[in-house]
Structures are given as C-alpha cells and as structure tokens.
Amino acid sequence: MHIVGIHLDQASGEGQNRTFVQAGILAGASIVVRIIGLLYRSPLTAIIGDEGNGYYGLAYNIYTIVLLISSYSIPSAISKIMAEKLALEHYKSARRVFVCALFYALAAGLAASLFLFFAAPVLVPATSVPVLRVFAPTIFIFGILGVLRGFFQAHRTMMPTSVSQILEQLANAIVSIAAAWLLIQTVRETMPAKAPLYGAIGSALGTGAGVLIALLFMAWCYLVNVDLLKNRIYSDKTEPESYRSIMIQTVRNITPFIMSSFILNLTTSLNQTIYIKMMINTHGADEIAVTTMYGLFSNKAVVITNIPISIATAVSAAIIPGISTAFARGDLDETRSRCRNANRMTFMIAMPCTIGLMVFAWPVTLLLFPQMMTLETASSLLAVLSITVVFYSVSTVTNAVLQGIGRMHMPLVSAGIALVIQTVLLVLLVRYTDMGIYSLVLVSIIYSVLIFIFNMLFIRKYLKVREDVLGDYALPLLASMIMGVGSITLYIIIFKLASLSVSSLYFVNVIAIFPSIIVAIMLYFFVLIRFGVIGTDDFLALPKGRFIVRVLRRLRWI
User: Fold this and answer.
1) How far apart are alpha carbons 131 and 123 in whole angstroms?
2) Which of 202, 194, 212, 187 is nearest to 137 (CA)?
3) Alpha-carbon distance 341 to 118, whole Å?
4) pTM (2 decimals)?
5) How far is CA 543 from the centre of its chain?
6) Of 239, 203, 194, nearest to 93 (Cα)?
7) Neighbouring C-beta atoms of residue 519, cutoff 10 Å
8) What distance in Å separates the CA atoms of residue 494 and residue 507, rounded to the nearest whole number?
9) Which helix H or strand E contains 247, and what residues bound it?
C-alpha cells in the first residue's frame, strides 16, 4: 500500500478535482461510519435504556471536550503544516513536523488522560464517574492516531483515514454491544438498579476499543510506506529547520485549531450543565427524568443530525492542505476558487439533508430508534434541530478556509461571540419559560446561525470571494423544498398502502421510507440539473464521475 496523491497538484482544475475526489472518499467513509453508529445505537439503547444513554451522554460530552483540547485538532493542524513543507519539497522539514507532532500528542494525551481520570468526580455527577474514567485512556491513544491521520492527509490521500474510521466504528459497535450486555448480566440479579450504569460503561469500552483498532491499522499503513518516505527524504538536499523552530510552529498552529474546536464544542458541555442543573434546582425536576430527556436530545436527535454534518467535516479535512498550498504560493485566484467551490458543494449537500430530516423526522427516528414511548418527543426534537445541519456544515468548511489562509483565530472569534450570546439566551429560556429541552434546540439553532454569519463575513473580508447567491444558495434551497414535498407525499402514499397488509408499524415504515429516500435523492439532482445549478463538469469532479455522467446521459438528464 503506497501513499497516493503525494505529488501536490500543479494545475488549479486538476488539483480541485483531486481535492473533491479525496473529499468524496472521506465523506463516503464518514457516512458509512455514521450509519454504523446509528445502526448499533438502536440495539445498544435497547440494552442500556434511555437512562443508560443519559449516563453515557453526560460522560461522553466531557470526554469530547478534553479530547478536543488535547488531541482532536491534531490531524487538521498537522496536515496544514506538512502540506506547506511538502509544497516546497522540504521533505526533511516535513519529517520533523511529524516527529514534533508525535511528541506533542504523547505529552498532551498522557496529561489529558490523567486529568480526566482523577478529575472525573468534579466533572460529572457521581453516577457517571465510572463511565468517564473508562474513557480516559482513549484520549492518549487518539492523540497518536491523530498524528498518523494528519500525516496521510498532508500527502493528499484520505484512503487510510477513511478505512481507519470505518474499522474504528465497526470495532466500537461490536465491543459496545457485547460489553454492555455482558456487564449488565453481571449485575442484573444482584443490583438491577445499577444495570444502566454498567451498560454505559460497556459502551465506553467500545469507544476505546475502536480507537485502538484504528491506531493499529494506521501504524501498519505508515510502516508499509517507510521505504518510499525515506527515498523522498534522501532526495531533499535542503537544510532542515531545527526541531525547536518546528515545535514552535507546531504549537502555534495547533493552538488556534484546538481553541476554535474547543469553543465550538464547549457549548455542548456548557448547555448540558446549565440545562440539567437549572431544571433540577430551579424547576424541581426529577434528576433521572431530566437526564433521560437530555439523552433523547443528545443521543438521538443530535446523533442523527451529525450524519450529514460529518460530510462537511470530511470536506474541510480534504481542502485544508490544498488551500494552504495555494495561499502559500500566493495564488489568490485559486484560493478563492477552492473556497467558493467547497462552500457551494457543502451547501448543495447539506440543504437537502436539512429539509429531508425535517420532513422525515418521524420515519427516520422510528427506523433508527424504535422506542415507542419516546418516539414522538425524539422525532419532534429532530425535526426542529435539523435546521442546524446546513449552518453547521457550511461553518465547518469556512473554518477550514480561514485556517488554511492563516486566519486561524477568526473561527475562534466567531465561536466565542456566538457562545456568549447563546449561553445568556439559554439561561433566560430555562429560567423564565417552560420550554424545557426545546430551549437547548433553540439555542443550538441560534448558535449555528451566528457562527455561519460571522465566518462568511470574515471570508468576504479576507478573500473577497464573489458568490452567486442565486445559483449557490437560492436554487439548491428551492430544489430541496421540491424534493421534500415530493418525497414525503410518496412516503405517505406507500405507508397507507402498506398498512393495509402489514400489521407492524415498524415494518410498514421500513417499506415506505427507503423508496421515498431514493426518489428524494433522484428528484433533488434532477431539479438541480434542470435549474442549471450543476452540470457535467461538477459530476466529473466526483469519485466515479465518468460513470455518473454516462448514466445521466442515458437517462437524458444532461
């Protein structure tokens, strides 16, 4: 297995096509990962219950925050620094970036793991402390994994990262279900009240097992390519930068990535704390009831909306090296072109996902989480929360653009201002209204919209990007609305017909939802093509683009 795409693109068009292909590979893997995550969540929830989901969610949110601070942003940061060195063919310096990043990950990961383990009683309620402590070692492993992923991303190949993500999620799913079931069996007879907690612990073990499997795979990919890497280093006759200089660069680049990701995700932990504590202390709500309701929000509605958002995350990971390279060469036209195309592609994917989740909230929730007692609440939360998909998706890509052009503190400014506004609003809503969990939904929407607005303003200020509002935004929105109306109408018709012969509500839903989703996808792209928003060149830029174009020509769509 060799590193593919190691030669940085020279031509703008060729480079952008390669970027979209790599983004497509990573996006495809992200979708598979999310689908696996959703599929295993249903049996896992059946095992540990909504109460166990609540314990897991409380610990997982804190784990995520600490992970963000220590390790999560390493792949993006390292890929940016290494891409700049590789663009100048400074392979020895690029190698030193890798070594310094590995040292950073080991030190930061160890410190974060120890902090999470010993500070657990302060960070989460007593019921979730054992779950959080099980998460602790995973952070150390993830740091090393992040360096290896960033290394391959800098070389413009997303395949190792994509495969490792799928392996990680498969291992996570298998171990989570098995460990949760086995641990619950150990206490079912003697301490039945502890069963949800032990199930949550088993789920946390699955997370760690997945990261470990992914690390082993990435390490194997690196070792397979050692000879190729050595040859490139030997061919470099330049004097490498000192380790001290590179370590300074590494810290300077990683810090803004970490801080912006931290603030972007701090809202989850902060909102969780505000909501739970104020509902209990101010409204006198039962702790288990509040935790269970929060579990519906975080482990059902949020989990589903994260599927399309993961596509934007893949796009951002793929475009950072290319934008950094173009900007480092002083090619502003190519930088602007990459920025606009990335935003355009992301919006065209995220907008129909938003409308689709909005109109299919009940069928999708029933399909993935068929717990009838909480179905109506979970689906209504998803319907409203789906609005955040398009704003979070575009914001993720614009964050990558700003970081790629060296304006790494701007996402931090956007997120910081939005965080303050949404926090104040959440306190007021929980304190003075009876909106309950819907307070979290509303502030999530406001938060995503604010970050979107601020980032777009910064992009226009620093890059002077000219956007086609009609073609890039208005027409995809209209096409998404047409898709939504057409597909939900078809769903209702099939649902009613299937109900005449099938008694199970779940299987009636299965029969109706899959053909409706297929028609929705076809209808959306058909309308986009007829509106002239996308054409042959756009499809050719996608993975298997020539095959897609041949099919569309046979259908006489283009």
Assistant:
1) 12
2) 212
3) 46
4) 0.74
5) 21
6) 239
7) 17
8) 12
9) helix 243-281
- CA–CA distance, 501 with 512 (Å, rounded to integer): 13
Helix (H, G, I), strand (E, B) or coil at 502: coil
Buried b (16+ CB within 10 A) or exposed e, 237-271: eeebbeeeebbebbeebbebbbbbbbbbbbbbbbb
What would the two tokens of residue 74 be? 């390493």
**CA distance between the termini of the chain:** 37
Which residue carries 């929705």 as its tokens?
520
Burial 294-307 (b: 16+ CB within 10 A, else e): bbbbbbbbbbbbbb
Q: Residue 283 in contact with residue 4, Cβ under 8 Å?
A: no
| One-letter identity of residue 287 | E
Q: What torsion do the CA atoms of 102, 103, 106, 110 make, to the nearest 10 degrees?
A: -160
Q: How is residue 117 written in tokens?
A: 């383990």
Segment 47-63, tens digit of pLDDT? 887 778 778 878 887 88
Residues constituting the chain: 558
Tell me the per-residue pLDDT of 189-227, one tens digit each, with 9 for 90 and over: 777 777 888 888 888 899 899 999 999 999 998 888 877
141 near 209, Cβ under 8 Å? no
- CA 103-408-253 angle, to 5 degrees, is 15
E-strand stretches of 9-102: none
